[in-house]
Design a protein that fits this description.
By secondary structure, the protein is α/β, with parallel strands linked by helices. The protein has one domain: P-loop containing nucleotide triphosphate hydrolases (Rossmann fold, 3-Layer(aba) Sandwich), CATH 3.40.50.300. The chain has a five-stranded parallel beta sheet with strand order 2-3-1-4-5, sandwiched between helices. Helix 3 packs across helix 10, helix 4 runs antiparallel to helix 5 and helix 4 packs across helix 6. The radius of gyration is 21 Å and the shape is globular. It starts with a helix and ends in a 10-residue tail after the last helix. The N terminus is likely disordered. InterPro entries: P-loop_NTPase (IPR027417).
C-alpha cells in the first residue's frame, strides 16, 4: 500500500481544441500554391488569378514583413529579420505559424487562398499539410534556364549571371520532391507574354480539370 501511495499517475496532456481551426477544417476551403523561382512572373500571375476570384492572395515576402511588425518584440521576429537581411530561408516552423495565423484570421470572408511563392522546399510543403490543411492545386510556373536568365538580366543588367544560374538550379532541385509527391495536383504553366494569355490558359485548366469557377477578366 505504501508503494501505491507514492505512485503517481501521469496523464497525457491533451492540446486544447482551437475553435477557429476546427471551423476552418470543416469548411474545406481550397488552397492554391503558386511556386516558381524569383522573377518568373509568380507575383503577377498570382495577383491576376486572385482578381478573377474571391480567393485571398497571400504573398510570402509581404506576410513575413507584416508578421514582423505585428510581433516586433517576439524573439522569432529577430530571427525572421536576420534571415531576410541575409537572404536566407525563414525556418519552416515560423513560416507555417505565420501562414496559419493569417489563414485563420480571414478564412470566413473568402472562398479560398492563393499562396504566392510557396513552397520553396519539400519540408515547407509537408509541414503546411500537417499543420494547416491539404493543398488543392499547385501552380508551377515553368521557365527554362536560358529564358530565366534573360528575364533576370532584363530586370537588372548588373545581376551576377553565374549566381543567378546556380540559384535557379538549386531551386529546381529543392522542388523535385514536391513535384514528385504532389504530381496529381500540379498544373504547369509557361511564363509567356502577353501575361493575359498565360492566366487564361491557367483558368481553363482550373475550371475544366478541378471544378473551380472564375470571373473572366481577360479575353482569350
Amino acid at each position: 500500500m505504501e508503494r501505491l501511495k507514492n505512485f503517481k499517475i501521469f496523464r497525457r496532456k491533451v492540446a486544447p481544441i482551437n475553435e477557429d481551426y476546427a471551423e476552418f477544417v470543416e469548411k474545406k476551403i481550397p488552397v492554391i500554391w503558386v511556386m516558381s523561382p524569383e522573377n518568373c512572373g509568380n507575383s503577377t500571375i498570382s495577383s491576376m488569378l486572385s482578381e478573377c476570384s474571391k480567393f485571398q492572395l497571400i504573398e510570402i515576402d509581404k506576410l513575413l514583413k507584416v508578421y514582423s511588425v505585428r510581433y516586433a518584440n517576439n524573439p522569432e521576429v529577430i530571427h525572421i529579420n536576420r534571415c531576410l537581411e541575409r537572404e536566407m530561408p525563414v525556418p519552416c516552423q515560423i513560416l507555417i505559424k505565420a501562414l496559419k495565423e493569417e489563414i485563420l484570421m480571414s478564412f470566413r470572408y473568402v472562398e479560398g487562398f492563393i499562396i504566392s511563392g510557396f513552397p520553396c522546399t519539400h519540408s515547407q510543403a509537408k509541414l503546411f499539410v500537417r499543420k494547416i490543411c491539404a493543398v488543392s492545386v499547385i501552380v508551377h510556373i515553368n521557365l527554362k534556364l536560358d529564358a530565366y536568365l534573360t528575364r533576370v538580366l532584363f530586370y537588372d543588367s548588373k545581376t551576377d549571371i553565374n549566381k543567378a544560374r546556380i540559384n535557379f538550379i538549386k531551386y529546381n532541385r529543392k522542388l523535385q520532391p514536391v513535384r514528385k509527391n504532389y504530381e496529381d495536383k500540379i498544373v504547369s504553366v509557361k511564363c509567356v507574354y502577353p501575361k493575359e494569355d498565360a492566366v487564361t490558359r491557367l483558368l481553363d485548366i482550373l475550371e475544366d480539370d478541378y471544378g473551380f469557377k472564375f470571373k473572366r477578366l481577360y479575353t482569350k
